[in-house]
Design brief:
The chain is 49% helix and 19% strand. By secondary structure, it is α+β, with helices and mostly antiparallel strands. α1 packs antiparallel against α2. The longest helix has 65 residues. The model has no long low-confidence stretch (mean pLDDT 84).
Amino acid sequence: MPPKPTKHITTYRGGSVRIGPISVITIVIVLCMAAMGVLAVATANATKVISGRYAAATEMMYVAERAGQEFVAELDGVLASARGRGATAAEVASLVDRSLDGICVKARGVDDRVSCSAAVDGRTVSAEFACDGARTLEIAITIEPDATYRIDEWRMASPQQEAATAGNLWTGV
């Protein structure tokens, strides 16, 4: 029997993978698009959080404004009743002073997230409406001798926050 011919088995010797310029550009573009997508999602989330805070602050500002308007309306009602009775300036001042607590309760009844404090100093009625968000509405009203009034101040204030020091920074000396 003649010997069988030997078969040579050839194996693939793993040559180099050739990446052309188009492939490199495509990979770079895909990586850039992925990075931009992550940044877009992060920016959208941050914008949502900030807009939510702004909406809450604006809502509290309107709650304080409404309570302030209710305060002035109640004060106007007290002064109108004094005008109807022909009260003197001293009687008007006394009536306003006695009525302030009730006026504050009615103004605060608009929304329980706002607090009211009021005081009379001579002919000036000062009221402050503090909100949950640390904003305050400050009102100053002057009572005229004829039992009318003039609004001298209507200001929404927000406390200034001090920046934290960052340690010993170089002062330039």
